[in-house]
Specification:
The complex is a heterodimer. Chain A is of the alpha+beta class. Chain A is about 20% helix and about 20% strand. Chain A has a domain of about 300 residues: 3-Layer(bba) Sandwich (FAD/NAD(P)-binding domain). Chain B folds into two domains: about 200 residues, no CATH class; about 30 residues, no CATH class. Chain B has eight helices and no strands. The chains are: A alpha+beta, B mainly alpha. Chains A and B meet through helix 3, strand 5, helix 11 and strand 20 of A and helix 6, helix 7 and helix 8 of B.
Chain lengths: ~600, ~240
């Protein structure tokens, strides 16, 4: 028995960054909004407090804030000919669960894509010729430009209290910032986080080689800040417990700390936690999603919630699964390359290094992502790819571990993993290790995609989403090139010892790598080649807006959240200024 | 009754830390001196034996012997079990995590390839118990006795064989079992003492990790290229 509820103006499926942004913008416009969140509520003053958040085992080890795979998961295989098997406990990537989603435990690196990233297919064709892009590289221009999205990047910066140093304000290049970035309308809301000692050493070496180092931009306030919603944010304490954990000073931006304090007071907003949306009810003839069906996990009852607007604001995987289950959009078929839902899956291609400096004191336990120093000289089209045999790139970082000791220890490769010799090496190098990363782009490939699994089902009987992924040769070449350039900088830092960590040839779901999964509901200019239009509106259901990184046509050499937030504000503005006045397709294909 | 079947009865023991030595005293033929560990630096006061939540006596004896081999007593720390790591492992196996919380456990089950990750129906607790049984069975074949009744250098040899996947375990993967044992040992050594390991913050003191106070904004500039040292504090110290 499904209980049919009274219709509401809008419903969000999930309440992370995009759900919170949509709920806030739509309630401001006068709509009644219900957010359905499968996980628990998470309230900063109750859940993000000392001393309990400074528990590395609970949060970083046992993944307190992450996806509960007992209800659902993905199946995974490297190649289409293989049998996909369920990821029985997430590892390589860690989507969050509960109010705030992945926006609580993220590292908070806060980036914008390059202007050339938004028209990458055109840029590469112009620079390297019409035949330069291989047939299996299914990249696409974004259906909006950097200049169009810039005001929304700016807006999201002022919600998060982002700290950093601008390198380009309205076309004026500024030394000490990222001179490769697109023109910003404003300097960062907050001054940069203080760099780690290792970061400064990296910056000096990079500069000596002619590169352009700058402090990492992060959604972590370096000073007390009142955000654009009039919510006070605290200053970073450099505690070192940042990653996979909530921030008790509300310096690291989360939906919970930046938007929900206002939203919770809003009478037009209603939050229902432990409500698992299982189905979008699609009226194909009317081209509308008329309602969503969910199970209240607290009593096992099923409810149908009709809504005028449906905001699909889950993580990438759930967004794709919902569309495939509901039959919205044509599913991608690998054999023929036809169809769009599930197409252009991309997974950030990160690779790193470690270096040891026996005479440097690095205090590895303090800091955050913000204490890193970066260079962007080898990202996107910031460098010439002529004759290199690959496209793409990524920014480099250097930092100390900035973590407690489960994750914050390093010993040189070849050290025994246990016993007295291991212990002596651990103690010897603990204070002297620096870590490096390259945030490699992924230019989508036709062989990497998502569809429904034919065998495995979730706790509600729905087919699991099946992921088929392996790193394409283009990305391996790109990554080796980045590591080669990084190695040059590391050598210039004169370490006692260093080692490069290239990516394995075959992707594995076991060790943690990155939570930057993108694609599957790509945005574009027409329904043949995309799932949603430039306003994130589904081509096949005009009251359905799909938010988040699932709309990325490919992934660029930066963390995705800055763009995810900006796109949500861009989409919300289209809804409130255009759609509500005249509900229907905002773009006519 | 052969020595292999003599139960490890911890109630006979004066203290949990002596578990290995006294258990091996019940019919052990190896010279007692071979079991002796070096003098432990800053050894904590002898704790009371901890009640077991998940492991039986045989399994516990294995875990004590294993963690004492992975984290031997030396000038840097007491032995793994003296640091509470066996207690930590027992409690973790009894926790929701040990019982398979947040794991997808539906079939069908296929071996798959390593890139697809863990594919067994067993919970972490069940997997550890199956692994301990397999390790002891292998140890009896290879050395004529259970792992915990081996002398120190044989234990090292046995763990290295498991780590390298050279130990023939039958149905359980020796390498996967060792991987889990090693990971849990490191967790027990380095995580907050609230979980039963890292007794007296022994590993934090060893490393120079200050623990929880972690409000460093005012110290960053002052301690550039200079080691910051503080007496570590844990969750309990702030509770």
């Amino acid at each position: 028995m499904v209980t049919r509820l009274k219709e509401v103006d809008a419903v969000t499926v999930g309440l992370g960054w995009t759900g919170a942004i949509m709920a806030r913008e739509l309630t401001k416009a006068g709509l009644n909004v219900v957010s359905l969140e499968r996980g628990p509520d998470r309230i900063p003053g109750e859940d993000f407090i000392l001393p309990s958040v400074r528990d590395e085992l609970r949060y970083a080890g046992r993944l307190e804030l992450m996806w509960d795979n007992s209800l659902d998961t993905l199946t995974f295989r490297n190649f289409p000919a293989e049998q996909a098997l369920p990821i029985r406990r997430i590892g390589a990537f860690l989507p969050g669960e509960g109010v705030g989603g992945s926006g609580i435990h993220w590292g908070a690196l806060h980036w914008r894509f390059l202007p050339s990233d938004f028209r990458i297919r055109s840029t590469l064709t112009e620079r390297y010729g019409a035949n330069a892009i291989a047939a299996d590289m299914t990249i696409a221009d974004w259906p909006l430009s950097f200049d169009e999205i810039e005001p929304f990047y700016d807006r999201f910066d002022k919600i998060c209290g982002v700290s950093g140093k601008a390198g380009n304000v309205r076309g004026k290049k500024i030394e000490g910032g990222n001179i490769f970035e697109g023109p910003r309308s404003n300097e960062y809301p907050n001054a940069p986080i203080k760099s780690s000692n290792a970061g400064l050493m990296f910056g000096a070496a990079a500069r000596s080689l002619g590169y352009h180092p700058f402090p990492a931009p992060v959604a972590i306030a370096s000073a007390a800040y009142t955000n654009a919603e009039n919510v006070p944010l605290g200053a970073c304490e450099y505690c070192g417990f940042c990653n996979r954990v909530a921030c008790e000073t509300n310096a690291k931006a989360s939906p919970n700390s930046t938007l929900l304090p206002t939203l919770r007071l809003e009478p037009k907003f209603e939050l229902r936690t432990r409500c698992f949306v299982t189905k979008l009810n699609y009226d194909k003839a009317a081209k509308k999603v008329v309602s969503v069906t969910y199970t209240d996990l607290r009593n096992g009852e099923e409810y149908e919630q009709p809504a005028g607007l449906v905001l699909l604001t889950s993580y990438v995987f759930s967004n794709v699964q919902h569309l495939l289950l509901a039959g919205i959009g044509e599913p991608y078929e690998h054999a023929t390359g036809k169809g769009v839902v599930g197409k252009n899956y991309a997974y950030q291609f990160e690779a790193g290094a470690a270096a040891f400096f026996e005479n440097k004191e690095l205090n590895p336990f303090w800091g955050s992502a913000g204490t890193a120093v970066c260079i962007d000289d080898f990202n996107g089209e910031n460098f010439d790819h002529g004759g290199l045999g690959f496209f793409g790139g990524g920014y480099f970082t250097c930092n100390t571990p900035s973590a407690p000791p489960l994750a914050g220890r390093s010993v040189p490769h070849g050290t025994p993993q246990w016993g007295s010799e291991w212990k002596r090496a651990t103690v010897k190098w603990y204070h002297h290790a620096a870590r490096f990363n390259t945030q490699g782009s992924v230019y989508a490939n036709r062989d990497n995609f998502m569809d429904l699994d034919p065998t495995y089902r979730d706790a509600f009987g729905r087919p699991l989403l099946r992921l088929t992924y392996n790193g394409p040769e283009n990305e391996h070449k790109m990554s080796r090139y980045l590591l080669d350039k990084l190695e040059g900088i590391i050598k210039a830092m004169a370490p006692t010892h260093y080692e490069m960590h290239p990516r394995p040839k075959t992707f594995t779901v076991v060790p943690y790598q990155s939570t930057h999964n993108t694609g599957g509901t790509m945005m574009g200019t027409d329904p043949k080649s995309s799932v949603v239009n430039r306003y994130l509106q589904a081509w096949d259901a005009h009251n359905l807006f799909v938010e988040g990184a699932s709309v990325f046509p490919q992934q660029h050499g930066y963390n995705p959240t800055g763009t995810v937030g900006a796109l949500a504000y861009w989409s919300a503005q289209a809804i409130t200024t255009q759609y509500l006045k005249n509900p229907g397709p905002l773009v006519h294909a | 009754m052969t020595e292999e079947t003599i139960p490890r009865r911890r109630f006979l023991l004066g203290a949990g830390i002596a578990g290995t030595a006294v258990a091996s005293g019940l019919g052990q033929t190896e010279p007692a001196a071979a079991q002796a560990q070096g003098p432990a630096a800053a050894a904590p006061a002898a704790p009371q034996p901890e009640p077991l939540l998940a492991l039986n006596e045989t399994e516990h004896a294995f875990v004590v012997a294993a963690v004492d081999t992975l984290i031997p007593a030396d000038e840097l720390s007491p032995s793994g079990s003296d640091c509470g790591i066996a207690t930590y492992i027992d409690r973790q196996l009894a926790s929701a995590w040990g019982g398979g919380a947040k794991m997808y456990r539906a079939g069908p089950f296929h071996k798959g390839k390593p890139e697809q990750g863990y594919q067994l129906p067993l919970t972490p607790a069940e997997f550890m118990k199956a692994g301990i049984a397999a390790a002891n069975e292998w140890s009896r074949k290879a050395y004529g006795r259970d792992f915990d009744r081996l002398v120190a250098d044989k234990r090292v040899e046995a763990l290295k064989a498991m780590e390298a996947g050279k130990a023939e375990f039958g149905s359980v993967s020796a390498r996967a079992f060792f991987g889990r044992l090693h990971a849990m040992t490191m967790e027990g050594f380095f995580s907050d003492p609230i979980y039963g390991g890292n007794r007296n913050k022994v590993s934090w003191k060893m490393l120079g990790f200050p623990g929880l106070p972690a409000t460093y904004a005012h110290l960053i500039d002052e301690y550039r290229d200079k080691r910051y040292v503080a007496e570590p504090r844990s969750i309990e110290d702030f509770s």
